[in-house]
């Protein structure tokens, strides 16, 4: 089981081994991985802040999401690099959160997220011993967090090595471009291809995202 990262900027200990494994098994990965040198997956923030940021960024551009996030954190009395606390969010109500540029729905989602953390309905201290699907089940019980968001959390925060987010448009587009000459690819085809990447499907996914956008994604 992959250890839980404790510091922002942490990188997975398995990354080099995963790259070697993938380049030995997959000719596309053998060409793709060296293009990005020493770039690595990195985590930032704590669990609560990471999930809150994912809610704020839903269905809007990266630039717009950052602007709303900055206003949201300033409204709570911090700066964009600060870690949020559930009780700080719960001190707000929906109209107060709306003033930061959040929709009513996103404001309600953030309050529900904060209540789950404050009431210890998420078991951070047990995640290291839990499998991916069990953590996903726990996270999707929070309003505003679906399977895709939970999978992004597994990859970017918990740094689980073997996640294949089949609902991710970028992953399917990357597979289409790199393996199917730009032809549309189905979830079933992506799943079958991903079998050869196990147990490092998260790493293969990360590099396919890079072929679409050289700038690393962070959550």
From TrEMBL:
EC nos: 3.2.2.21
GO cellular component: cytoplasm; protein-DNA complex
The organism's place on the tree of life at top rank: Bacteria
Annotated SUPFAM superfamilies: DNA-glycosylase
InterPro entries named in the record: Alkylbase_DNA_Glycosylase/TA, DNA_glycosylase, HhH-GPD_domain
GO annotation, biological process: base-excision repair, AP site formation; DNA alkylation repair
Stretches assigned to the HhH-GPD domain: 56-213
Annotated keywords: DNA damage, DNA repair
Tagged with keyword Nucleotidyltransferase: no
Protein name: DNA-3-methyladenine glycosylase II
Organism: Vitreoscilla filiformis
């Amino acid at each position: 089981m992959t250890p839980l990262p404790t510091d922002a900027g942490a990188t997975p200990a398995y990354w080099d081994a995963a790259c070697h494994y993938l380049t030995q098994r997959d000719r596309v990965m053998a060409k793709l991985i060296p293009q990005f040198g020493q770039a690595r997956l990195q985590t930032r923030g704590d669990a609560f802040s990471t999930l809150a940021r994912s809610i704020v960024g839903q269905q809007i551009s990266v630039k717009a999401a950052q602007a709303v996030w900055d206003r949201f954190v300033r409204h709570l009395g911090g700066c964009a690099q600060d870690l949020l606390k559930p009780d700080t969010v719960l001190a707000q109500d929906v109209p107060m959160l709306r003033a930061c540029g959040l929709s009513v729905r996103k404001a309600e989602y953030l309050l529900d997220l904060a209540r789950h953390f404050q009431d210890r309905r998420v078991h951070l201290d047990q995640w290291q011993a839990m499998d991916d699907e069990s953590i996903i089940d726990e996270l999707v019980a929070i309003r505003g967090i679906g399977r895709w968001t939970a999978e992004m959390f597994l990859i970017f925060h918990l740094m689980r090595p073997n996640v294949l987010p089949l609902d991710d448009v970028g992953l399917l587009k990357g597979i289409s471009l790199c393996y199917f000459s730009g032809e549309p690819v189905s979830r079933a085809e992506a799943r079958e291809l991903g079998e050869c990447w196990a147990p490092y499907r998260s790493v293969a996914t990360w590099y396919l995202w890079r072929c679409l956008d050289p700038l690393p994604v962070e959550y």
